[in-house]
Amino acid sequence: MKKAFANDNILKVISVVVAIVIWLYIIIVLDPDVEVNVRDLPIQFIGEEQLNANGLSVVNESATTISLKVRGSRKKMGNNDMKTIIAKVDVSGIQTEGTASLPVEVVVPFENAGISSQNHYNVDVKVEKLVEKQLNLEVTTKGTLAANYMAGPIKTDPETITVKGPESVVGKIAKAGVILDYANADVDIDEEVPIILYGTDGKELPALDAILQRIQQDATSTKIHCTVVKLREVKVVPNFEPVVQADGTVSNQNFNCSVNPETVQIYGDDQLTAKITEIQTEPISVEKFLNNQKVKVKLKIPDGVKILRDISEVEVTLQQNTQQDEG
Question: Which of 107, 147, 310, 325 is the right S-S partner for 86, CB 3.0 to 4.6 Å?
């Protein structure tokens, strides 16, 4: 009994070994063909430069991926990357606007493997007239500068961009802009920022938006320069003309008066504005106050200095009591 059982186990082992040998023979020696499923293979659209030269541009395609089966040697199929398979559609031959049905060409770069089946043989491609539009770059700012600093002119390089693509797609782009972050700066700002495109609804077009996939733009970023200047508050001082007396002597009048505004904020070359402590008015003739208690007088602004909010004149009010100092 034991001998029979032992013989039975030996037969089982022999059967397994024989099966493995046969399997190895089939796999290694005979190397039968196998099929591999390749799903969602991206379609490469070629020839768009020639299409653009014809004044046309692709709007959309009925499919951008295909699925197929590749048959070939198990060894070769196992030793090659299915991602190297290429599916392509040539659009260069399209001559007119409308929809064209084009064949998908599948290229398998490794030997002894063929395509047994695929679920897409043709792709419908819609094309439109190729147009372009020039857009000025609009600058939007966010954040604030450091205390007592203000922003000067903001310049971009380039100042405009050109977008090009299918007529219906380009028509959905309303404007282009950039965002400048002041970020508490106290020196001139120089940086490169991305260009943002906006739709006709005024909303930003995300990078993955289908519209952006269909257009070409000659610049995707711009260099931006913003001058940052320091503000200094200085006093406004009225400058009265000397009065010539009857005896020919000249008296300097010190009048009891008020000025509105009493101070102004100046900016410009920092080394220049740092030396200025006051801004005087143009000479004021006392005769102006004969019929009026208040007169408007222009400011005497030094060259190279600017006043915040472009204040160029102040209002001087003469009080009832005056004090005269002979000089």
Answer: 107
